[in-house]
Amino acid sequence: MNENYKNNKLYLEGLESLPKNVRQIGDAREGNRIYMEDYVYSYLHQFAAEETSSEQIAFLIGKYYTYKGDVIVIIDGAIQGDYAEKVNGDLCITERTWYHVYEKIRKYFEDYSVVGWMYTQPGYGILLTSFLKEHHNKNFIDDKQVLYIVDPLEKEDSFFAYENGELVEKKGYYIYYDKNPSMHNYMLENKTKKEEKNEQDIDEDNDIIKTFRKKEQQRKDDIYQKKFINMLSILCGGLVLICLVMGIGLLNNIEKLNDLQAAMKTMTEKYNNIKKEVIDLENENSIMVNNELGAQIPDVNGNNDGQTSKSGLESEEKHTETITPPKTQTINPEDIPTSYTVRIGDSLNTISEKFYNTLDMVPNIQKLNDISNKHKIYVGQEIKLPKP
């Protein structure tokens, strides 16, 4: 293959400011720096975890920049290294692999270049072998292209870059958060095996969840009917007692008939007020029933395809915002994880309450994850958490 094709016309562009909203891994404060977008980081580690008994290869897609005299590598995408072959026990990049990579670049990352590659070493840790040095020199001719080694078993990773003609381990790098439609489109059409398996499991669970919803709704209706009947019994008993008191008063003192008539009017007004409160309580209980059902069993496909799921989430939002007292406990930003996987019963409100003890962070979570409808999240979705 022509080396210029591998190099893809790499060049430097001036960078006016560094990416914002970043998380530092290791010590990466000075000198030449590496920035990897969060979608890319998550996808590469999912891909690496698919095979824990053999190596895998992926290509890092992005651009080089200069900033105040330093070289900045910004990784905006990743492509699986298909068609790699084992040679003497080592996984090697082939000509067919390169053609496949540049087909994907033309489709998803037209304005970007190959800025390096990832090599997984399950169980071997971060070990720069003589094979990796030789293979890097053979396939990546630009001295700015980097090597990213990942051990999915030990959950270790590190970048290597050229310094004074030698591949040297970098002390750290940055993960930054930004909208990345190119990588998002690639991920949708090139899912990892784990993601495909999760979709199959969700389809198989649909019938079970529908049955559970039906039984849960029936149980909630039974509880509500019992509570309502008990309240009506108490109300009727109170009215009977009022009537007895009024009758005794009339028999004992006929002269106070006028006063009793006034008392009767007052009692009637109180009865009307009690009746109104019972009706309001009935409406409130109905909302709570739907709210609990919607919060406990959200749509696993992440779609509001049923009225029960949608109304449950909306009711939960209203109920939480009206009766949840504010919490004033101080949150340590270091205790907040970078992301959270949505579980059954979660909403953006409950996630915000769980990690920030407030609902005020819901708009920030929406903005960070590009969620236009805060009620539309699904089980298994990766939610990135902003720092307060």
From TrEMBL:
PROSITE patterns: LYSM (PS51782). Gene3D superfamilies: Cytidine Deaminase, domain 2, LysM domain. Keywords: Coiled coil, Membrane, Transmembrane, Transmembrane helix. InterPro entries: LysM (IPR018392), LysM_dom_sf (IPR036779). Residues 338-385 form the LysM domain. Residues 295-338 are annotated as: Disordered. Residues 257-291 form a coiled coil. Residues 301-312, 322-332 have a biased composition (Polar residues). Pfam families: LysM. The keyword Transmembrane helix applies. The chain crosses the membrane at residues 228-251. This is LysM peptidoglycan-binding domain-containing protein.
